[in-house]
């Protein structure tokens, strides 16, 4: 077996143990005479996968009883639209914190639905530093405040969340850092994340939403786009992406058996330190993109003085078994995505490769 050092931004590395367990159960799931993909989503076996996955999300992330855990489709991008469809009313404004490409996409979708306002922006910092949560300006008529907890392309991550929003629900896109660190869920009205970075394969999107926001769902939008539809039906309103939910189930069990979310954070801190140190100790050969106080534990963005050398770096990294180190096409440069399932060993190998590349080209 030859597994790459996988630093893909998403879909991204999954734990080897999870893949092997899925392989074992692939053809026949628990004596059912068929795979999980071939059985009814109304069967007892699938219902158990669905319920257990919700319960594991609650347990691992500390989600209180007054929140629903939903498994939906359409990706985080569909949530960009569903959030204003469900929460934004005439006379109100959706407040957005503009922190980069993903926050901007969320904002653009909301504009189709109603009024929006920018509560803070890091555009003047070229999106390389998260704005201070103390500087957010949230108008009285805000329906919610939307933040992107980790900007996957920029490699910047909020280190804290606002606590002074009063009755304005806090909504967070945690697509690229869910379950990477403990979070106080009570601060949030709604959290959402596409699965394909920290939770499993693509195809399922997790939404954690407080019950009062669900009760308030408008009745004049199609049922499929309403949170109350999915909450009432325990995410089985229509055919779910059953294989993806099953894979999320295995990933959640893997997180649990590896010590839970606090242990994930420690692992992520230790392994990203290896790469940030390689940048910081390079005497300017590597240039970290994110401001140090906003550095992400999930996406490490950096540059080399010349684009020629960056190309060379990507080429040689690929020859050495590394995958996914080219920066996003919109910003260029280099990026290492270090989600929960990326092993410490891959990060150590990358730090060593970086030092060696510098020795040869510095
Ligand atoms: N938000 C963030 C922070 C992301 O990183 C991504 C995908 N890279 C998205 C939203 C969009 O997710 P999806 O492709 O699941 O719609």
Question: How do you describe this structure in short?
Answer:
This protein has 362 residues and is α/β, with parallel strands linked by helices. It contains ten helices and 14 strands. The protein is globular.
Describe this structure in words.
The strands form four sheets. A seven-stranded mixed β-sheet has the order 2-10-9-8-5-3-4, sandwiched between helices. Strands 11-12-14 form a three-stranded antiparallel β-sheet. It folds into two domains: 16-257, Aspartate Aminotransferase, domain 2 (3-Layer(aba) Sandwich), CATH 3.40.640; 260-361, Aspartate Aminotransferase, domain 1 (Alpha-Beta Complex). It is globular. The mean pLDDT is 97. The chain is α/β, with parallel strands linked by helices and 362 residues long. 36% of the residues lie in helices and 17% in strands. The protein has ten helices and 14 strands. The site of 4'-deoxy-4'-aminopyridoxal-5'-phosphate has 11 residues, from helix 3.
Portion in helices? 25-40%
> What is the total tally of β strands?
14
The global form is globular
Order of helices and strands: EHHEHEHEEEEEEEHHHHEEHEEH
Stretches where pLDDT falls below 50 for ≥5 residues?
none
Structural class of the helices, strands and pairings? alpha/beta
Number of helices: 10
As a whole number of angstroms, the C-alpha radius of gyration is 21 Å
Cα end-to-end separation: 34 Å
The averaged pLDDT comes out at: 97
Q: How many distinct folded domains?
A: 2
* Major pleated sheet: 7 strands, mixed
CATH top-level class of the largest domain: Alpha Beta
Q: Bound compounds, please? A: 4'-deoxy-4'-aminopyridoxal-5'-phosphate
CATH topology (level 3) name of the largest domain: Aspartate Aminotransferase, domain 2
CATH superfamily of the largest domain: Type I PLP-dependent aspartate aminotransferase-like (Major domain)
> What percent strand?
15-25%
| CATH architecture level-2 label of the largest domain | 3-Layer(aba) Sandwich
